[in-house]
Amino acid sequence: MATSFLTNQQIASLVEAIQSAEEHSTGEIRVHIDSNTDEDNAKIAFKVFEELCLNKTKEKNAVLFHVNFEQKYLTIIGDTGIHAKVSQSYWDHLHDFITSEFAKGNYYQALKSGILETGLELKKYFPVKGENHNELPNEITFS
Q1: Residue ranges, the chain, pLDDT below 70
Q2: Does the pTM of the predicted model rise above 0.90?
C-alpha cells in the first residue's frame, strides 16, 4: 500500500530490511504506519504494540516503529526483554536520528537505517542459538 511518503517498492524494501535485521537474532521488528491519528500518537502506538502481539514473543524482544508521517511523529517501543538490555539513551539517539531525517524528507532511508540498526542491537543481546523461528509477520501494517 503506497503512501505519499513511501512507494510500493520502498515498502517492499523495508520488509526485506526487517527480514535481514531479524536474521541473526531471535528479536522481532514491526513497522506500523498510521495515517489516522491526530493526537496522542504515543498512546495509540502502545495500543498497536499490543494489537500486533508484540508483547507475546518468547524472549520479550520485539520492537515497534510506529510512524505518523503527516505529523512527522515516531514512537519506538521495545518490549521488556530488549528494553532491559538496551539503555534509554540508545532509543533516544535512534529516535532523534530518524525524526531528524524525516524532517529532511528522508522517510525511506531513515526507517531502513533504524530497522537495520535495531537488528544489530537485537543480535548483540538475543543471538540465534539453534533454529530461528519467526514469531511475528515481517509485513508493514497500516491504519
Answers
A1: 1-2
A2: yes
Residue 111 to residue 65: CA distance in whole angstroms:
8
Quote the pLDDT of residue 131: 82
**Closest by Cα among 83, 85, 47, 44 to 63:** 83
